[in-house]
Amino acid sequence: MTADRPRQPYNVTLAVLALSALAYALLQTMVAPALPAIQHDLGTSTTSVTWVLTVYLLTASIATPVLGRLGDMYGKERILVLTLVLFAVGLLISALSHSLFPLVLGRAVQGFGGAVFPLAFGIIRDEFPREKVASAIGLISATFGIGGGGGLVLAGVLVDHLTWEWIFWVGLAMTIVAIVATHLFVPESPIKVPARIDWAGAGLLAAALTALLLAVSEGNSWGWGSARTVGLLAASALITLVWTRFEVRHPEPLVNMRMMRRRPVWTTNVAALLVGFGMFGSFILVPQFVQTPPSAGYGFAADVTAAGVFMLPSTFVMLVAGPLSGMLGTRVGSRLPLLLGTLIAALAFAFLAVAHDARWHIYVATALMGAGIGLAFAAMANLIVEAVEPTETGVATGMNTIMRSIGGSIGAQVAASIVAGSVVASTNFPTESGYTDAFIVSAIGLVGAFAASLAIPRRRGGQPEPATPPATGRPATAAVR
């Protein structure tokens, strides 16, 4: 901080960063329960209204590595404020929308908020004392899941008692507070790297992600074997190969492929993909399951608000699990909490597959999900931060966030497809076995995350990796074997 702006206490900075992250995380899921109301009010089709979700994820996936890179170049606090301003503009556009196009446009602008997480991680690494870094990153990571679960609850209350536009007004109020607080209380990071943005690489990455996420998001309506879906998936794979080759040869790439090939990085990214798969599967499956009337042979006839309450144990447990993961990471390394987290989350889905007849079954399962996902999210962020140089933090954590979002998109669509495929025409409800199969698939995905976590290198002798003290700016690297 400058002489006229003394350094704020670390807990104040952390609280501001957590608020910024929470504002973005809430809007990831708050819109989902409101889609039927939005479709009815705007008089649009089911396929068209899904763009309210799809475009948000598309923009976030494209903007996150670019803004993370800009943060590494020009200052993370400065770019964080810019990111929040763009997020607020998007919220305002959506709140004032009276037709589908401006609503989708507003959601596209909101996607720039995805850079909040890598920028926050970078600020913590650059500014916080080494003993506070892991637990602080753990708390910020936990807000991703906390906001996801909490968004389902808050959206139900707003939609049931007000209107869907209030989702964006509430998000806008939070974001304005976050903008002011970030400017006043978050210091500018001392570590910057002079570079240029690889716009060609960013364009290729955008094309690959757009093709992939469009295919995943529309697979249900188009058909997974349709020419459009298969063609987009093939195009995404081809463009990804071209992008990788281009980045390897570029003198100043957007994403350093040598960094991405490091064993701690690529194994953690695979784990992020599969953990996201499981987490977003739960956001789709649990609310739909509990809203089904008992006449279908299962379910509890919950309304939108009550369905969100079933997710509350997950939200509360994540609040504890994230910082706990960070403390474990400081003592024994972040690999252990990631292993524990993926295993606990897999057990939660396995439990749901065999026991879902009583309300307490759902509460126990969502609490286990919160513990597992909270431990895993925090550990993944710390593993990435430990494995890269300070000047690579923004891009590296941004790519990890993208992998988590892609996994979430795939998990949500796969879960929805399995359940939709079991709908009985006479009742118009899925069969109980359809949900059981979907729970098992989510559990298998998290077992895969556990396997990927086993491939992450252990730290030497169980000693903590050296972190970068704020005053020196020297690179911090992970000691692995």
Shape: globular
* Low-pLDDT windows of residues: 1-5, 461-481
* CATH fold title of the largest domain: Growth Hormone, Chain: A
Strand content: under 5%
Rg computed from alpha carbons, rounded to a whole number of angstroms: 21 Å
The CATH architecture term of the largest domain is Up-down Bundle
Largest sheet: 2 strands, antiparallel
> In angstroms, what separates the terminal alpha carbons?
38 Å
Q: Please identify the top-level CATH class of the largest domain.
A: Mainly Alpha
Question: What structural class do helix, strand and pairing data support?
Answer: mainly alpha
Number of helices: 18
User: Looking across the biggest beta sheet, what order are the strands in?
Assistant: 1-2
Quick summary of this structure?
The protein is mostly helical. It has helices at residues 10-42, 46-49, 51-74, 76-95, 100-110, 116-127, 130-161, 165-185, 199-222, 227-249, 257-260, 263-291, 304-309, 312-332, 335-354, 359-387, 393-420, 432-454, and strands spanning 423-424, 429-430.
